[in-house]
Task: structure prediction
Amino acid sequence: MTASDGGPHMNDGAQTIESAALALDGGDIHVCQDGPRNAPALLLIHGSASSTRSWDPLVPLLTGSHRVIRIDLLGHGRSAKPTDRSYALPDQARRAGVVLDRLGVEHAIVVGHSSGGVVATALAEQRPELVTALALVNTGPSLNAFIAPQPDSAGLSQWPPTDEQIRSFASTGFSRAGYRIPPELLDEVRCMTLHTLTATMQATREYLEQQALPDRLKALGKPLLVIFGEDDRRWRSSSADDYRAVPGATVELLPGLGHSPILEDPPRTATSLLPFTTIHAVRMG
Result:
């Protein structure tokens, strides 16, 4: 593992934060670790056209009880963006599993936001011994639940896109049209390539077309928490009820929040998430 930003450093003198590049066969994967290394592992997986930065406001609320691990999926953020590698969901999930292996993690709770929840599901399918529980945040259960007017990256066919195009593309990711999208998240779209953007979004569609997530999750028998901003403008929030088909699943709607509660209201998101992750945590070391 090679440090990509100077390696380990300290946050307020309390917890070690490490940012590094992990070399995989498909290209380098950027990894962030926060919190005590012997605490239960919590893997956070971002959504489409996003990165580890989407979790920044939430992470400080989780590190008191967890070793928080974040990755930039291939094609995103500070990870490699090759044109000759697969961006299929099973391959993205396999890479996430390899990252945990390299970090010495034997058990992890996996939390995915939006399409990151689809990757989390694929990882649990591949590595049931590794994933102890799943939490999905505004992850649409099937393509039938999609309501956004722009189903793909067509609005970003010009590359690099203008700031206005990126804002328009990202606007449905929040509860209201006037929400000020953090500029660093707009930068994450800009640093992608048109190929990685279109390939990763197509991969999510193909995976959902093959089988709806509740049907996949029913077969796994893993503890499941579903958190959904009730004012989601991309996925019909009432579709969260589809996950109740999974035995023992907990579904929580957050009124007044949209597709990105992890950014819109991190404390409320943490209030829903932490009891679940604490109950199902497996301590390391």
